[in-house]
Amino acid sequence: MIEVENISKAYGETRAVQDVSLSVEAGELFGLIGPDGAGKTTLFKILVTLLLPDAGRATVAGRDVVKDFRALRSMVGYMPGRFSLYPDLSVEENLHFFATVFGTTIAANYNLIREIYVQLEPFKNRRAGALSGGMKQKLALCCALIHKPEVLFLDEPTTGVDAVSRKEFWEMLGSLKKRGLTILVSTPYMDEASLCDRIALMQTGKLLAIDTPSGVEKLFKKPLFAVKANDTYRLIQDLRQAPFTITCYAFGEFLHLTTRDGFSEQQIAHYLAERQHQAVEIRPIEAGIEDSFMDLMQHG
Amino acid sequence: MIYIITTWFAPSSIHRSSLLIMQRILYMIEKEFKQLRRNKVLLRMMLAAPVMQLILLAYAANFEVKNLKIAIVDQDHTTYAQRLAGKFRYAERRQIGNFLFQGYLPNSKSAYEELLAGRADLVLIIPPHFERDLGKENQASVQLLVNAIDGTKGGIASGYAQTIIRDFNLAIRTENIDFDAGSLAGLNVTNQYWYNPRLEYKTFMVPGILFELMLLIGGMIAALNIVREKEIGTQEQLNVTPIKKHEFILGKLTPFVIIGLIQFTLGLVVGRFLFQIPIEGSLLLIYGFAFLFMLLSVGLGLLISAISDTQQQAMFVVFFCLVIFILLSGLFSSTQDMPQWAQYLNLLNPLKYIIEVGRNVLLKGSTLRDMQSQFFTLLGMAIALIGLASWRYRKTV
Fold first, then answer.
1. Chain A residues near residue B36 by CB distance under 8 angstroms
2. Do A40 and A177 lie in a common domain?
3. From CA A85, how far away is CA A140, in angstroms rounded?
4. Rounded to a whole number, what is the distance in Å from the CA of A73 to chain B's nearest CA?
5. Same domain, A226 and A209
6. Which residue range(s) make up the domain with A236?
7. Same domain? A203 vs A223
8. pLDDT for position B102
9. Distance from CA of B30 to the nearest CA of A (A)
10. CATH topology of domain B68-183
């Protein structure tokens, strides 16, 4: 449904997207994961015909993003990272406006947005600018869906949204996917990656890996331990100097420690005991997406 | 039996798509008015602006020189000196000059003080032996001190004073030589002022202000409105929709043209009924020009919005253009008195042409034939601006 071949885009000296290729199947929920400044938004803008690529070609729903941009525009739904609706128009007016602009009506495609819109309905006369963050984002999703697009592009839809709304939002994406929509979503949150069918890890304009979430986890081959002690700050300092350590990062209350092959929990415990760490917990763990991503960022 | 089967496929699809485009543009316009209605501050300002500006500029900021404060130093204390002073003291009754007599001063030193302190605009010094010299030598001089910081005002004040002194001169000469002033050789000039017989400053200003305001609305409000769409990101959102460039531009232009014409009407009504501005020419013609000028103004706004990324930038560019346009336009001072280079610059000033049109059509009753060079210039400018703006308004970066 989306084919990207060797797309590059630079802003002056900054090479925002470098030689990116990927392919998204019809009906897939595809995640583009990466930190701020990775080039996700630039790639999105190229795919929704807002930017011209410097090199490479891309098609969405079989249409070239450069040559067939006009036809493509009525086939894609785009929700930018920043809230981009009229704050001085009401919920209903915003929706009506975008429906009219696309040459359709709210009624014609109501079944597609019904599930989401029922939550907004009590506020339909409220100005969009006065909505809460979660509500704004639901409205933006409705506006992006109102013309029944084939492909939905969501650029960091959950950034700055509370945990409950984030969960709800991903549930909505799940039900949209069931209706056969192809969805490309970008996020800086690793925990959301596991909710996608496939993900691409992106950093400084390059793709590091494209795989299913479990496939990405399996890319991580080294021994991994979760370590915890009373004094986390001193623990991280000491572990980073240990002879067996490759990397050591804080992951919530635990530290994730990557070691060279052939070191056991006992050896780590012994090393920490020598340095007077209290209440030490060490257990080997399976790598998550974030571990893989951190590893790829280092060596990828 | 003949069945006529007509296939309407092509025509109906054309019909449907053009209907769709119409709907789209109409809704753009409707949206614009909705937003404007909710922007209470802007709405009030736009309605209050023409009335306020007309009242302020026409009544307060005018160039009519009135209430000149005059003080007199009489060092002669004779009948002639008294009579000359009296001419100034009672000048207001004789409809010549507009002097406010401040009083007598003892000497020229105190006259300087009065001028410095701003308590007098001009001081008349009648020297000692004024009457004697006038009688014996048939000539005498008086000194007139004029505060000329404001050159125009100083010039006019001095002109008024000289007229009074000349009057006085003529009077005493006829008394002494004993013949009738009327038989003196000389031309008696009587002025008749056409098109603005009472030399009303308001009559001169109002047509200009009407159009200056339209440029403000078209240029400033339209530019800021479009740049705002860029700032809040709706521009980008619209760019992913199938809406076409010209549809967007048309949807944006139309509301401001309508608003501009409403404002023009408001200003015209105020001008006609509050200031008794004559409307000599055709109302249709003046509205035709107003419409054309509004297109031009909105075109300018559109061009500015296309080259600005933020409202701040747009605001400054508009301000820069407007100030130059207004100062050079002939709204306040005659364009023909400007230096040559400024007159060349003025060839590009739309406000200059439309103010000429406004004054000529409203006050003189000029016809389209009289105004055709202005018409074609303004038309050309409007087409150029809208064309340039549309070209610059690239949807895809």
1. none
2. yes
3. 7
4. 5
5. no
6. 219-299
7. no
8. 82
9. 10
10. abc type-2 transporter like fold (3.40.1710)
- In angstroms, the separation between the Cα of residue B246 and the nearest Cα of chain A is 13
Place of tokens 């007159």: B343
Separation in Å, CA of A50 to nearest CA in chain B: 5
Please answer whether residues B224 and B316 qualify as being in contact, where contact means their C-beta atoms are separated by less than 8 angstroms: no
pTM above 0.80, yes or no: no
Q: Return the pLDDT at B205.
A: 80
Number of CB pairs, chain A paired with chain B, less than 8 A apart: 72
Of A47, A36, A140, A52, residue with least CA distance to B234: A140
User: What gap in Å lies between CA B92 and CA B138, rounded to an integer?
Assistant: 29
pLDDT digits (tens, 9 = 90+) for B131-152: 888 878 777 888 888 888 877 7
Q: Are residues A174 and A233 in the same domain?
A: no
Let me know whether A82 and A226 are in one domain.
Answer: no
Name the residue of chain A whose CA is nearest to B243's CA.
Answer: A101
Contact list, B35 vs chain A (CB under 8 Å):
86, 88-89
Tell me which residue in A84, A87, A143 faces B236 most closely, judged by beta carbons: A84
CB contact under 8 Å between B397 and A50, yes or no, is yes
| ipTM tops 0.85 | no
The string of pLDDT tens digits covering residues A63-115 is 999 998 888 998 999 999 888 899 999 999 999 999 998 988 889 989 888 88
CATH number of the domain where residue A7 is located = 3.40.50.300
CATH classification of the domain holding A232: 3.30.70.2070
Contacts (Cβ under 8 Å, ≥6 apart) of B278: B203, B362, B363
pLDDT digits (tens, 9 = 90+) for B144-203: 888 888 777 787 788 778 878 888 888 877 776 655 545 555 555 666 667 766 666 777
Structural domain total, chain A: 2
Q: Which residue of A has its CA nearest to B23?
A: A100
Per-residue pLDDT tens over the stretch B77-94: 888 888 888 888 776 555
